[in-house]
Amino acid sequence: MPIKRYGAEKAGAGGQNLPFARAVEAGGFLFVSGQVAMKDGEIQGVGIVEQTHLTIKNLIAILEEAGYGLEHVVRCGVWLDDPRDFWSFNAVYKSYFGENPPARAAVQSHMMVDCKVEIECVAYKDPA
Questions:
Q1: How far apart (Å, rounded) are the C-alpha atoms in residues 44 and 42?
Q2: CA-CA 20 to 30 A from 63: which of 6, 26, 34, 80?
């Protein structure tokens, strides 16, 4: 099976090109790099609710570009800057994944950019 990379042509904070692929597809799996509440190279939103919505919308855009949807997501990794945001984050997260959520890990971590949340995911579609 060939490996397909969805490039880093979109700019990161300060207009820098990022040194990694937004996503990589191999053998039916799509590995989506961590997404934050970034739009046009800048972090948007001040609260966890607004940032979570934008972060998940960024994930959805990459999934759709590769021909996947949230229904194909089998695992998410979540980093929260402040553990007090956990329950508000969960409410927004659940509104997207509903009754069939993927496996998930969530940890507190200091972020590399000035944001409140980062989410990565792995999606799967049978390649046959």
A1: 6
A2: 80
